[in-house]
Specification:
The protein is of the alpha/beta class. The chain has helices spanning 8-27, 41-45, 75-85, 99-112, 138-146, 163-172, 195-203, 234-240, 270-280, 289-299, 302-331, 357-366, 398-421, and strands at residues 32-33, 92-94, 129-134, 150-157, 160-161, 176-181, 212-216, 247-252, 264-267, 337-339, 348-352, 369-370, 388-391. It has 2 domains: 8-43 and 306-421, Aspartate Aminotransferase, domain 1, CATH 3.90.1150; 69-300, Type I PLP-dependent aspartate aminotransferase-like (Major domain) (Aspartate Aminotransferase, domain 2, 3-Layer(aba) Sandwich). The two termini are 20 Å apart. The chain binds pyridoxal-5'-phosphate. Pyridoxal-5'-phosphate is lined by residues 37, 98-100, 137, 182, 187, 216, 218, 252, 254, 264. The site of pyridoxal-5'-phosphate has 12 residues, from α4.
């Protein structure tokens, strides 16, 4: 970020100009929404052929998908997603429609049943803490709050979480049982973990024998460019460094096929998968294998997934390009904000001057532009610098998006110049 103008006269003139723009914005009585990290209807249309699938009901091994059973999910679907999720098909579970539900269940099972390597159930621990790279995903933080798990923030770098901090905390505190990781096109920063970060996560000594990496690879195939980011294979690295049970891998097709009707996956070591299946067997007699079969018929193979994601990218790239263009035009060189230019995923992070994010979100709301609450990207809803704003450009159409981002930049200019004049 360049240094904002320090001349009070010039600043006041900029504030006055921003105020006039803001009043004009309010007068338009807009009703726009930048909060929704969900696919647009046009993206969902890409998978409409699925509505008439499956054509039959018999799996490759003769299983009648209409019936109970098959707890681990259809093998042919696990084969297709084995590559994209970097999990051997035999160590992958294809489950229901939500990976968040699998993360929830993993925590509940760990609370009530010793995970492999644990001395006791997490519920019997005096205290449990998770490391939370920030900015991060609010629903991860909500899960921690739900189960009384203390959250310890760790700063994100351009390569993933600050590993010096992570290594020190995990080595020193045996009550740290987990870390949330969104390793590719992170929500909301768009950061992808470097190979070295993944290696250090896999290799670092942990005081807790039952320390787990919650590897939420939600955006594994959600590329926006023609040069997809590849990340290191966390399960292989954990195994190679003597910590075979360290990582729980999650993923889903929520933003590939249908957000409400996709398939979610859990992958891990053989011991962890056996533990998960043993616990899952108590809550279901089997997953929706017809939906698994529907996905198999729709994709055919892993290349089919990638081809489908290229069609998503064609719809999404213009939206992300538009955000970049408007932010550059309105805020570039002002020193009032910086932002990410993600190569995949669903979000742009806008970083504003410290102490301004909440007020910008409030002013935008008053002008009819709904933004994710400031602070949502941090544990306990508290961004200590009050500077992170998450932008979700996927859902609105291009015209609405342009209006909303332009309006947001007006709020940034107004609040930031007011702040500098304080
Ligand atoms: N994980 C991350 C990082 C997400 O951004 C989202 C949705 O926005 C989810 C998980 C939710 O996944 P699912 O629909 O599979 O429950």
């Amino acid at each position: 970020m360049t240094i904002p103008a320090s001349d009070p006269g010039e600043l006041a003139a900029r504030r006055d100009s921003a105020l006039r723009d803001y009043e004009a914005l309010r007068a338009r009585s807009l009703s726009l929404d930048l909060t929704r990290g969900k696919p647009s209807a046009r993206q969902l249309d890409l998978a409409d052929r699925m509505l008439s699938l499956p054509g039959g009901h018999t799996a490759a091994d003769g299983t009648d998908c209409r019936n109970y059973g098959g707890l681990q999910g259809l093998p042919e679907l696990r084969e297709i997603f084995s590559g994209p999720l970097q999990v051997p098909a035999g160590q992958l579970i294809a489950a229901g429609n939500s990976s968040l539900a699998l993360m929830h269940d993993s925590i509940v099972h760990a609370l009530l049943d010793r995970v492999p390597g644990a001395e006791r159930r997490w519920v019997d621990e005096p205290r449990i803490a998770f490391l939370c790279p920030v900015p991060g995903y609010d629903r991860h933080f909500a899960l921690c709050e739900r189960f009384g798990i203390e959250m310890i923030s760790v700063p994100m770098t351009a390569d993933g979480p600050d590993m010096d901090v992570v290594e020190r905390l995990v080595r020193e505190d045996a009550q740290i049982k987990g870390i949330w990781c969104i390793p590719k096109y992170s929500n909301p920063s768009g950061v992808s973990y470097s190979d070295e970060t993944v290696r250090r996560l896999a290799a670092m000594p942990a005081a807790a024998p039952d320390f787990r990496i919650f590897w939420d690879n939600a955006y594994a195939v959600h590329h926006l460019t023609d040069t997809p980011v590849e990340i290191a294979d966390v399960l292989a690295l954990c195994a190679g460094n003597g910590h075979p049970d360290r990582a729980f891998v999650f993923g889903s097709t929520s933003k590939v096929t249908f957000s409400g009707g996709g398939v979610a996956f859990f992958g891990s070591s053989e011991a962890n998968v056996a533990w998960m299946l043993k616990n899952t067997a108590k809550r279901t007699i089997g997953p929706d294998k017809l939906n698994h079969l529907r996905h198999v018929e729709f994709f055919g193979d892993a290349d089919g997934v990638l081809a489908h994601m290229r069609r998503h990218a064609e719809l999404l790239r213009p939206r992300f390009d538009l955000v970049e263009t408007v932010l550059t035009k309105e805020l570039g060189g002002t020193g009032l904000a910086s932002w990410t230019t993600p190569a995949g995923g669903y979000f742009v992070t806008l970083d504003v001057l410290p102490g301004c994010a909440r007020e910008i979100v409030r002013r935008a709301g008053e002008a009819g532009i709904a933004l994710t609450p400031a602070g949502a990207t941090h544990p306990y809803g508290d961004d200590p610098r009050d500077s992170t704003i998450r932008i979700a450009p996927t859902y609105p159409d291009l015209a609405e998006l342009e209006l909303a981002i332009t309006g947001l930049t007006v709020c940034v200019r107004l609040v930031a110049t007011e702040k500098l004049l304080e």
